[in-house]
């Protein structure tokens, strides 16, 4: 899968000469470092400081997940894209003009939800019309008139609530969402959403790492200890486009099935190893799929679009150019 490597099994990850070596069940699998940018570990993986030093030398990020598929943390090589000037400006943007960026993000979320639902409306699912009408009228107006971040977050929450409620019109009954439950997820659709959102969040960490932005200074989400809050901001508008379209395709084409691909317990429901493999493959295919970028006049991948949004934010911070996040309709 190109620059991303996924480890689904228990084993040991070490440096072997100038390659990475994953050892499991007495067998070695070699991972070349030349085109590896990030590694995802979805099981217990032993590592040592020699490996971490080698990852740092090659600017490779490694993400760790817990048993439930939730994000545990990231080994993040020392920043090699440092900019004191941008850091100062990013802080000033947060202090003086936070709302303009936060408002743009929430508006972008709503417009991309609209496009995803409109696809189903065009294909005969007329029941979603109430939500798409609300987004184009009330939601956009309320977001543009909002006065603070708390108010914005309330409108964002309402947009997601209406979106989830419409799943029953185009997904099988087994995958209808009654309510969003995260830690841990309690049914198959919540398990898919949690896993997909976490994948996208960590992809965004990797994208921001390749820019001069500071991960800790966010605009919609509160900057807080212990998380990369800017990654939460930058991933939001891509959730309808990448995470949910991946889920809908997998479920409606029966590639993910309740009886085959989930582990269920009294208090949780998570994807099993086979389910994760299927989801990761589809997710990567979505990230690498191309569309015509209306401004650049060339084809780009969604992975590139994610990084382009980071550069748009930098231009907003340094040059006060309007920040308009990725739009599925506009293709930019």
Question: What features would you describe in this structure?
Answer:
The strands form four sheets. A four-stranded mixed sheet has the order 1-5-7-8, sandwiched between helices. The protein has a four-stranded mixed sheet with strand order 4-3-2-6. A two-stranded antiparallel ribbon has the order 9-10. Helix 5 (188-209) runs antiparallel to helix 7, helix 5 crosses helix 10 and helix 7 (239-252) crosses helix 9 (273-288). The chain folds into two domains: 4-75, CRISPR-associated endonuclease Cas1, N-terminal domain (Ribosomal Protein L15, Chain: K, domain 2); 84-319, Four Helix Bundle (Hemerythrin (Met), subunit A). The chain is an alpha/beta fold. It is 49% helix and 16% strand. It has helices at residues 49-57, 84-122, 129-145, 149-165, 188-209, 229-236, 239-252, 258-261, 273-288, 302-319; strands at residues 4-7, 11-16, 19-24, 27-32, 38-41, 45-46, 61-65, 71-75, 262-264, 269-271, 290-293, 298-301.
At the first level of CATH, the class of the largest domain is Mainly Alpha
Question: How do the strands of the widest beta sheet line up side by side?
Answer: 1-5-7-8
Annotation, overall tally of beta strands: 12
How far apart are the first and last residues' alpha carbons, in Å? Answer: 24 Å
- Number of domains as seen in the coordinates: 2
Outline, from the CA principal axes?
Answer: globular
Instruction: Give the percentage of residues in beta strands.
Output: 15-25%
The sequence of SSEs as H and E is EEEEEEHEEHHHHHHHEEHEEH
Q: What is the count of helical runs?
A: 10
Low-confidence stretches: none
